[in-house]
Structures are given as C-alpha cells and as structure tokens.
Specification:
Elements (H helix, E strand, L loop, with lengths): L2 H8 L14 H15 L3 E8 L4 E4 L4 H24 L7 E4 L3 E8 L4 E8 L4 H20 L4
Helix pairs in contact: 2-4
C-alpha cells in the first residue's frame, strides 16, 4: 500500500476550524462565548451575566439553561462575598459538579458580571476552569475598552 494512503488511514480526520468576522462589541462577546464552548471538552453552553444574574450575551437556549446561568451567577456572587468576609482572597472560580453535568462560574471585572460555562459528559474540570478564567480576563479587557 502507498505510504501516503496508509498514513491517511492511520491519522484521524482533522477537526475543522471555525472562522468568522466580528464587527461590533456584542459580536465579540458572542464570539468569545462560542470559542470557550468549542475549546473546552464537554462544553455545552456559555453565558455572560450582569451583576444581577441577567444575561448580557449567551449561547444558552431554553429556559432551564438560562435559569442555570442566573443561579450560577448568584452562587459566584455569594462565594465572592464569603471570601471577602474571610479577608483579601479573590474569587477565582466556582465549580458545581454533578454526576452528568458541571458548571464553572467566574467573575468578569471586579464583580460587574459572571461568566458561566455549562459542561456535560466527560470533562476536565481543571482545564474548563482555566479556559473560563482566561475568557473572563479577555472579556474584562473588552468591557474596559472604549468600544463600550
């Protein structure tokens, strides 16, 4: 058999890349959420909520996922209050782990909002937490820019 043909049989197909052009700040937020979901194994949906848990941008669909996002934002806000009461420790992330699903939430800015990632199936929660925190930093930079 031709070595190139053998290699193509042994090598799994490459994952297609998603390319899109974003022209406004709201589109940048949506693109950041979509990118987060795509980068994290088991990623199902992501949402950015304001300080009251109301969605600013989201890939979530359905009332139960929107409720999940709002409640996770409230839990993250409560966790920040607990850490503030204990001293100068800053909230990094809150992980809610169930048997089939998990939720990672972290602050955006200085408590101005919460980034929520919903996961299902097999997942690496440390990687999910890391990617969510990185995306929160990117969103904070965007929100602090003059584009808003």
């Amino acid at each position: 058999m031709d070595p190139a043909a053998q290699m193509s049989q042994d090598t799994p197909a490459a994952i297609p890349e998603l390319h899109f052009v974003v022209t406004n700040p709201e589109g940048v937020l949506q693109a950041a959420l979509v990118s987060l979901v795509m980068r994290v194994q088991g990623g199902r949906a992501a949402s950015l909520a304001d300080a009251n848990g109301l969605p600013i941008a989201s890939t979530l669909s359905g009332p139960s996922l929107r409720l999940t996002s709002a409640l996770a934002a409230m839990i993250a806000r409560t966790a920040r209050i607990v850490l503030d009461a204990m001293g100068r420790d800053r909230l990094q992330a809150v992980v809610i782990e169930g048997s089939a699903t998990a939720v990672v939430a972290c602050e955006v800015g200085k408590g101005t909002g919460t980034l929520v990632l919903v996961l299902e199936g097999s997942r690496d929660l440390e990687a999910a937490k890391r990617e969510t925190m990185q995306t929160a930093t990117e969103i904070t930079t965007l929100l602090d820019s003059d584009a808003w």
